[in-house]
């Protein structure tokens, strides 16, 4: 994985850490956002889900990609989960969630 530039080694003081390279993160971000999309789609009771620890403080690029994928589904069944999610996230993400909700309502 290192040889093919999917992972790299970074040092935290003297400790070596494996981290995604830019190329590796692009793949993982897409894969992870697909997984989250599937999980959110299958929530039975979004009002009981802990979006605060589930999605808040995640990588912003990945979250925006997830919201784009939700919007592309055109499926209004995501709206209850989005409404719950926007209660706990930061302003920029809330704004994007509101935009996606409006798009799904149209």
Describe the structure.
There is one protein chain. Helices cover 58% and strands 11% of the residues. With 106 residues, it is mostly helical. Strands 1-2 form a two-stranded antiparallel ribbon. A hairpin with a 2-residue loop joins strand 1 and strand 2. The longest helix has 20 residues, at 22-41. The radius of gyration is 16 Å and the shape is elongated. The chain starts with 6 loop residues before the first strand and ends with a helix. The relative contact order is 0.12.
Question: How is the secondary structure organized here?
Answer:
Layout: E1 7-12, E2 15-20, H1 22-41, H2 51-54, H3 60-73, H4 79-86, H5 91-105
Antiparallel strand pairs: 1-2
Quickly describe the structure.
The protein has 5 helices and 2 strands. The chain has 106 residues and is mainly alpha-helical.
Mean of residue pLDDT values? 94
Strand content: 5-15%
- The total count of strands amounts to 2
Radius of gyration (Å): 16 Å
Quickly give the structural class: mainly alpha
Q: Keyphrases for this structure?
A:
106 residues; mainly alpha; two-stranded antiparallel sheet; 2 strands; 58% helix; 11% strand
